[in-house]
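Record minuted for completeness.

…
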Amino acid sequence: MKGRAPLPLRARAALGFGVTAMLLGGTLAALGYGVIRQQLIGEREDASIRQAYTNARIIRTGLRASDADVPRLLAGLQLRTGSSALLRRGDQWFASDVDTDRRQLPRALSERVESGHAAHQRVEIDGTPALVVGVPVMDAEAAYFHVVPLGDIERTLSRLAWSLGITGALATAVAGAVGVAVSGAVLRPLRHVADVARRIVRGDLHSRLSAKGDRDLSLLVASFNAMLDELQGRIDREARFASDVAHEVRGPLTALAAAVDVVDRRRDELPERAVVAVDALQEQVRSFNALVLDLLEISKFDAGAARLRLEPVDVTAFVRGALEEAGCGGVEIRSATNSATVPVDRRRLHQVLANLIQNAQVYAGGPTAVVIDAADGVVRIAIEDGGPGVPPGERAVIFARFARGSTSEGPDAPRGSGLGLPLVVEHAKLHGGRVWVEDAVGGGARFVVELPVGSP
């Protein structure tokens, strides 16, 4: 089972900031809500208990009179708006209003008050939270109960909870936005590193990083630039080495080729086994000479010494000439345009076409058609063959240096230097173009060279 792809760094930073803000804000909101709730309800309880004791003393004083009027006593009490009072005197119950019923009193509270102890308890009356305070009036064999609603506090706390929730959500969103902004600022130097790396991959080995006065990045910039300097030096040394070796080998190789030609001209005087050896040696010398020439050409690209000499060329006529030179004059040329004139380096375009035609001859029995198309500011030259084609997994590999693909792995497979297609890529890139291979219609491979119509 494949693992789930991780979130991008900026998304993780935004998520981290948001989650942190949500947890921190939620914790602070919960603590604040708890403190405020405890304070509001506590203050209401304290005030209600004090008022209940005061009212109980007033009741006790009023009940001492022989003609005590209990309903008038209850009506004269100071009660908070919405509050009510109950009084039990003997077996009789009196209430400050008709909506208050002794059955609303909690039994445990009533029993404790009847036993001579003051008590208070939070209850729900008709779905509304309330506080009931009971105070025994021992001198008059009575019990006073004070009922205080808490609905207004609960509504205030509910609005507070909504406000804290909305504030927390806004804080989370703001923190996420801050995370995106901060991660963007942190990743900006990394994007600059990626841009420099891409330019280096494209061949611009002189690109370097700049710290722009940021002391925190100076060590990274210095290390990265030092690595690039070392890499460029190594590439330059390798390019010079390949060029020097190719130049040094070319002299002895020329002498060897001349010697083989001298012997070949007198082959009639040689025994049959010697003639076979001379033919094999002559073939190897030609292959070696082609390899040396390719290495010299490659070394120019590596050293950055390759230059274009542009001149307008009729692509169709140029392709026809390259086919005839390679002995493929009968190959069909299909052109989607009457005339495609492109500024190119004639020598380099000729080598591109020659290498692709030779590649088709060696591995696919020769080209079957050449298709020329011009559109969108580019001209495409496609060389098709009827061979086995190129597997998708090898379509990028075969353009690497000294890579020849699976078709050259057999003992009887044709041999090559492995530099023909890489040179095609380098010549096309120098023109500002590109090269790729795809399946041809009806089977086989289709190598496509794309060149810009304007100057590269």
User: Anything to note?
Assistant: The chain is about 55% helix and 20% strand.
